[in-house]
């Protein structure tokens, strides 16, 4: 039986969500945090948004530098993701403390994590308040991908990489048995196709 309430509760009904590591670099210092609320917003220009609390150290670094990166790590790095989410960049150098390896960014100074199977380098183009969070919109100016993690048509190959999913309340999916089935819209969009 479904329960109905006007109370949102813990607000985890829309999870699991792909965990992303949002990173910034300002005044010689890198920082990274975990974000569960993020989304592509436009193909042309390529825009990607992350929703961050303005209380986060990374948020201020992004405002100050005008750029950020969005790093997608495999589930095998769930421990690192949890460490980044459970520590404060204003109190420590997370990159040194957790031995995070970086690659050279192409168009920004934002950290590109070596362990990521995909990274977006973004230039900040908008910052708006929505409730208790800020929606930071970045134009994707460079994309880093691990070639063997993607199929020929640029889709994530779940046989090669299991993405890290966040369930809420410090819980991550570390293993996932995936099955991919192609569902053509033209075929299934017809009456009687189900």
From TrEMBL:
User: Domain named Flavin reductase like: which ranges?
Assistant: 12-166
The catalytic activity of this protein is classed by the Enzyme Commission as 1.5.1.-
**For this UniProt entry, which residues form the secretion signal?**
none
Q: What is this protein called?
A: Flavin reductase family protein
CC cofactor: FMN
Task: Kindly state which keywords UniProt assigns to this record, in alphabetical order.
Answer: Flavoprotein, Oxidoreductase
The protein's GO terms of the molecular function aspect are:
oxidoreductase activity
Family, per the entry? Belongs to the flavoredoxin family.
List the InterPro entries hit by this protein, alphabetically: Flavin_Rdtase-like_dom, Flavoredoxin, Split_barrel_FMN-bd
Q: In which organism is this protein found? A: Candidatus Dehalogenimonas loeffleri
């Amino acid at each position: 039986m479904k329960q109905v309430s006007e109370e949102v509760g813990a607000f985890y009904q829309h999870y699991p969500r792909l965990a992303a590591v949002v990173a910034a670099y300002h005044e010689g210092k890198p920082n990274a945090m975990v974000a569960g609320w993020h989304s592509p917003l436009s193909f042309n220009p390529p825009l990607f948004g992350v929703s961050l609390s303005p209380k986060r150290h990374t948020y201020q670094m992004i405002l100050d530098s005008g750029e950020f990166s969005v790093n997608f790590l495999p589930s095998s790095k769930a421990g690192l993701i949890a460490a980044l989410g459970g520590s404060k960049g204003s109190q420590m150098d997370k990159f040194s403390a957790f031995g995070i390896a970086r690659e050279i960014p192409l168009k920004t100074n934002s950290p590109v994590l070596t362990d990521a199977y995909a990274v977006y380098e973004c230039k900040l183009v908008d910052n708006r308040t929505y409730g208790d969070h800020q929606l930071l919109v970045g134009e994707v100016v460079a994309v880093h991908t691990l070639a063997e993690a993607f199929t020929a048509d640029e889709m994530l190959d779940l046989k090669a990489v299991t993405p890290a999913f966040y369930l809420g309340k410090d819980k991550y999916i570390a293993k996932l048995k995936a099955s991919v089935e192609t569902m053509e819209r033209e075929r299934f969009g017809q009456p009687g196709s189900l």
